[in-house]
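Typical record is below.
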Amino acid sequence: HKSVTSGQREVLCTHCGKPTQVARRAMSVFCPHCRQRLILEDFKIKTYYAVRDFSTCGDIVVERRGHVVAPIRVGNLTVKGKVQGRVRARGRVYISKTGWFKGELEAKSLQLEQGAVLEGFVRIGVPPDEAEPNASPVKGLSSGTPEPVATSR
């Protein structure tokens, strides 16, 4: 989140990716570009949580006993428990040594602690909707085809 004025902040829509000015204390707004509802809150998940869609412009922390089964669109994600599903993070995904992730993962950056479990497809770098049309792929990464990554304890 980028500070604009003392009472406003800029968020990126979890649906269309366009920037929107919102009141600093707002909990949800409608995107003026795509008209979808945006949740702006941060979440801490401490138990089992299964939904069809989990989207927030804020951050999600899945605690050690937390277990999320859902497609997730988020600012930043911290996994200390379990996450299953397709995750699209506009910022960082952090998986702690107690964290377990299975599914598809897209993020600007990924940090794994030793002992973290990650099983699935991973794409790290600039999200596709933010990439310049003629930009070359990030050095060391494939140009679009996700690669399976598996780490274990």
Q: What stands out?
A: Residues 10 and 21 are 5 Å apart (CA to CA). Confidence is low (pLDDT under 50) at residues 131-147. The two ends are 34 Å apart (CA to CA).
